[in-house]
Amino acid sequence: MILESLEGSVAAKKALVREQLEEILLLVQWTVETITSGNKLLIFGNGGSAADAQHMAAEFVNRFLIDRPPLAAMALTTDTSVLTSIGNDFSFDDIFAKQIQALGKSGDLALGISTSGNSANVIKAMAVARELGLRTAVLTGGNGGRLKGLVDLALTVPTSHTPHIQEAHLWVEHLVCQLTDELLYGNLAIGGTEGSA
Questions:
Q1: CB under 8 Å to 28, separation ≥6 — which residues?
Q2: Which end of the chain is more exposed for a tag (fewer CB within 10 A), N or C?
Q3: pTM score, two decimals?
Q4: Cα-Cα end-to-end distance for the chain
């Protein structure tokens, strides 16, 4: 079981890179452009994907592998008062959309995470984000679900096995953090000067 799990996880990541390397690089490019233009990432999802959103936002705001200035990213999964008031007064489907209406602006990047691609609150948030002029990207799996056709950029892990989708998502999230750091402040820094932004 251990070897089968390991092989399945590695296979999912390899398949994602084989099929969507250009899309991964585009997500990195959009992340860099978002930050260098003074805008922010808004990251969200449910359950394990909520934890991923918080994890990724923390890597940007604090640090990933190199020391550099904090980068603007927010997880829309952390404020229990906001989440529960929206869920109670309106609907759980609105918990991310209302936050994007309050906090999002044109030039921001809305990054949703949904293993199925069918999370109603992520779908609704993406519709609002597009209306407000945000770029929209999603990490999903399987066939991409409804979200695949509703966003500007979809990274879809080509497996139906939820744990392997989530493991591939975390790998992509770390990769985006690492490449963004390197492009802005590290060995790949734009213009070739370390520390330039």
A1: 175, 176, 179, 180, 183
A2: N
A3: 0.93
A4: 46
69 conformational bin, left if phi > 0, alpha if psi -120 to 50, beta if neither: beta
What is the C-alpha separation between 180 and 64, in angstroms, rounded? 10
In Å, how far from its chain's centre is CA 42?
8
Residue type, 29: Q
Q: What is the rounded CA–CA span in Å between residue 4 and residue 108?
A: 40
Instruction: Give 49-113 as a DSSP string.
Output: HHHHHHHHHHHHHT-SSS------EEETT--HHHHHHHHHHT-GGGTTHHHHHHH--TT-EEEEE
* Helix (H) or strand (E) run with residue 184 in it: helix 162-185
Q: If you classify domain 21-183 with CATH, what class do you get?
A: alpha beta
Are the beta carbons of 73 and 60 closer than 8 angstroms? yes
